Amino acid sequence: MILDANTIPTGSVLDADICIVGAGAAGITMALALMDSGLDVVLLESGGPRAEKDTQALYQGTVPDVRMHSEPDRYRARRMGGSTTIWGGRCMPMDPIDFETRAYIPLSGWPIGLDDLLPYYPHANQICEAGDFAYTAETAFEHPIRPMIGGFDSTVFSTDTLERFSCPTDFGKRYGERLRTGPVRVIHHANLVGLDSTSAADGAAVGPARVRTLSGVAFTVRARAYVLAAGGLETARLLLASPGASGRGLGNSCDVVGRYYMCHIAGTIGTVDLASAASVWHGYEVSDEGVYCRRRLALRPAAQRRLRAGNFVARLHHPRIPDAGHGNSILSALYLARPIVPYEYAKRLYGDTPGTFGLWLRHLRNVVLGVPAAVSFVWQLFTRRKLAERKFPSIIVHPRNRRYSLDFHAEQEPNAQSRVSLGTDVDALGVPRLHVDWRYTPGDVETVKVALAALADELRNSGVGSFEYDPAQVEMEMTRYGAYGGHHIGTARMGRDPHDSVVNSDCRVHECSNLYVAGAAVFPTSSQANPTLTIVALALRLAAHLRREYAPAARTPVAGATTLETART
Predict the structure, then answer these.
(1) CA gap 478, 219 in Å, rounded
(2) Statement: residue 547 has pLDDT above 60
(3) Residues 162-182: what's their mean pLDDT?
(4) Is residue 211 within 8 Å of residue 69, measured between CB atoms?
(5) Which helix or strand (DSSP H or E) is residue 468 part of?
(6) Model pLDDT, residue 201
(7) Over the Cα atoms of the chain, what is R_g?
(8) What pLDDT digit, counting tens, does each position of 330-346 carry?
(9) Does residue 544 have a pLDDT over 70?
(10) Which of 59, 163, 248, 562 is 20 to 30 Å from 93 at the Cα level?
C-alpha cells in the first residue's frame, strides 16, 4: 500500500519489523523481495511519484570545485524510484578480480567474493529488465555475431564481454502498482531526520527513526531493524547526522563514514585508426530476448595484475560533438539538440564548450549539407528513443574512414582524503547539508596511462590499426568532466575491520545490532562496472539475510505504537 506521510497524525508511532529508508533501486528491490516474507515492512521515501522542487532541494550541498564534482543535487533524484528515474540503463556485473585483495590497489579486497553474489545476479538482471544474465558474446547469442574489430587478437584486451541495457527501467513506475497493492507500507514525503542512538553502547540497537515532512508533520517509526538505502551520498549524510555512541555519527567511531568516496574515472581521448582492420562493429547487437548489448575493450585480469592497474574498459567513440569541423550531420544534429538533452548527459557530450551563435551556424550548415542522414537520424531518435519502451541506448556513428576517438571508463582506488562530510548549513528540515570533496590519486592516473599505452601496443601489434594520443594529456582528459556522474561509491564501505570499514559482510553497521546499509555506499572498491546491477544484487542478498535474521514470530506490539489503519483515521 502507498500512503502519504502528510496524512499521518503528528506524534504517531508506527511499528514495523523492517524500516527501509529510500525508494530507489536498492530500497524498492528489498521491498519487492520481502513482500512474501511475512515481515511487516515500511518503506520511507522523501519524495512522491513525480519530481518536486522543494523535495529535490533537500539534496543541495557544497563542493570545493564544481568543475571536478557536480553539486550534490545533480545526478540524483529525490523521488519515488530515486535515480533510476534518470539513469541510462547500463548493466554489467563486477569481475572476480574486483573482489580480490590487490597489493597495488590500497584497501582493496571485499569480505565477500563474486560467488556470494552469483546466486542473486540473475534475479537482479530481471528486476533491472536487462534480460538474461549472460555477459559474453558466446553466452548471450545463439547465433554468431560479427567481431568487434576483425583481426584483433590480444592476450591483454578482450572484446567479448558485454554491457546489457535496461529499458532504462524507472523502478518507481515499473513497480509502483505492485507496491500499491502489496503488503509493504510505502510512505511518500517521509524524510528521515535522525535515528535515536545517543545512549546506544557499541553493538546495541538503534531507533526509533524520526521522520518529518516539509509541511511540518512529525512521527516516528519503531522497527526491529533499519536499512539505509538512500544512495552513496545521502546514506553517509544520514549516518553522520545521527550522533551514535561515539557522538561522531552512527558507525563513525573510527572516522570512516564518508571517507573513501569513489566515482569512476572516465574520459575521451586520442584517435583510433582502424582502416587496416578486416571489419569494425562498435554498435549494438540485440539479444534473442530483445535487449540491446554492446561489446567493449576490457583489460584482462592477468594484464591488470602485470601492469599493476585497476580495472579498465574502453569503447570506440565518435569525434567530439562540439567541434563542427567533424562535418557530420548526425553529430551536428545532436549538438543542435543540446537545449533538450538532460544535464546528466549534456556535461559529457558537450563539455564546457560555450554554445555561441557562430558555432550553432556551423553545425546547422553540417545538418543542411547532410539532410538525408540528419532526417534519418532525427526519425530514428524519435521512434527508437522517444516512443520505444526499450530505448536505443545511445548515438552510434559509423565513420567511413574508421577513425574514432576512445571513450574509457576505469576503476578509481579508495582514498581516505576523498570524502563527504557535513557542511555548516542545514536544509529545510534542519539536517546538515553535505560537503562533497571528491579527489583522485596518482594511482588513478597511472591506471589510465598504462591501460592506454597497452591498448596502443596491442592494436599496432595485431596489425589492425593504430591509437594515437598525447600521454601528457591523459590526466587532463580524465578530469575534463570531473567525477563520473551519479556513481557515488564507498562512503560506508564493507569490511571485516571497523577501523577501515563501516559495515560487515552482511551490510550491518559494525557498531549497531540492527542497522544495515544497502547500495553502492558499501562497495569497498569501484570496479569498472556501472553500479546499479550490483546494487540490486546486494539488495537481494541483504533481503535474504533479513528474512533469516528477523523471521516472523509472535511479536508484542510496542507500547504506544500506531497501526497504519489507526494513523489514517
Answers:
(1) 46
(2) yes
(3) 97
(4) no
(5) strand 466-468
(6) 60
(7) 24
(8) 788 878 887 767 665 66
(9) yes
(10) 59
Cβ pair 436, 62 in contact under 8 A: yes
Closest CA to 532 of 283, 158, 297, 264: 264
Indicate the pTM of the whole model: 0.91
Pair 550, 5: CB distance under 8 Å: no
183-187, 260-264, 526-530, 549-553: segment of lowest average pLDDT: 549-553
**What single-letter amino acid sits at 296?**
R
Crossing angle (nearest 10°) for helices 329-336 and 371-381: 50
The residue to which cell 539538440 is assigned: 337
List own/partner pairs for 419-427 with CB under 8 A and 24 or more apart: 419/258, 419/259, 419/260, 419/261, 419/491, 420/233, 420/236, 420/237, 420/258, 420/261, 420/491, 421/240, 421/258, 422/237, 422/240, 422/241, 423/61, 423/62, 425/62, 427/57, 427/58, 427/60
Across residues 395-418, what is the average pLDDT? 92
- Grid cell, residue 243, equals 550522533
Contact assessment for residue 219 and residue 11, using Cβ atoms and an 8 Å cutoff? yes
Grid cell at residue 40 = 511487516
Three-state DSSP at 232 gives helix
357, 352, 287: which is closest to 320 by C-alpha? 352
Specify the DSSP element, H or E, that contains 55: helix 53-56
Cell of 351: 563539455
| Residue 168 in grid coordinates | 532504462
Q: How far apart (Å, rounded) are the C-alpha atoms in residues 477 and 317?
A: 14
